[in-house]
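Human: I would love a firmer grasp of how sequence relates to backbone shape in proteins. Take your time, and here it is.
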Amino acid sequence: MPDNAISRCIELIQQSKNIVVLTGAGISTSAGIPDFRGPQGLYTSRLYDAEKVFDIAYFLKDPKPFYEFAFDFIALESTIKPTPTHHALARLEGNGKIKAIITQNIDGLHQKAGSQKVLDMHGSFLSSHCLRCRKAYDYRELKLMVLQHVIPHCSCRGIIKPDIVFFGEDVKYYHQALELAEKADLFFVIGTSCVVYPAASLPQFVPGKIVIVNNTKVDLKVYNIALEVESDIDQFFTKVMQEGKFI
């Protein structure tokens, strides 16, 4: 990656007072979570039928396909750790630079890294609820049930559903995310191709500068892109943190 991209990113961070970040699956692939749309992803490998796994109408009819996926995801979750980029964003938040992270991911790695202001637009496994009586369950309770290869049910016999967003459901926190985007003087787009809406629409509302960091080309049609980096995400942010002395 060119050194001028590193120095330019550092300069933009230093000059900005209201930084907001949008992240996607590409930020977590180095942690061992395949990008759903990548070469080994759920939508391309067909290890699972994605149309059944994440469709709310199908889940209400038969939750088994989702919980087969959930078993593998939860088993994987216990082995994965935040990436250098997750830690870099948490540190920049701790330094008062980043005001919020908007993520499309359901892996909870931003929280594991220590980020405090995280909007999980597609929800996460961190909380669940009974679809019948609305009783809340935490991640530990859900995990115990899922790892026993049973479909989690509440004491009222209702099905328990993790608070992730299925196809056919509205995303979470969109209005808060939009307000953040509209006030950002610097907006990072990291590890996402910006093809999944409505999250992909957020850069269109940013009045400040936009920085794109992804390992593949991002086709984002906005006028205010200040820097676009196509490289290994972790390597880039490791250098930014070191050379910018943000560590």
Observations:
- The two ends are 20 Å apart (CA to CA).
- The beta strands are 19-23, 98-103, 118-120, 123-130, 136-138, 160-164, 186-190, 209-214, 225-230.
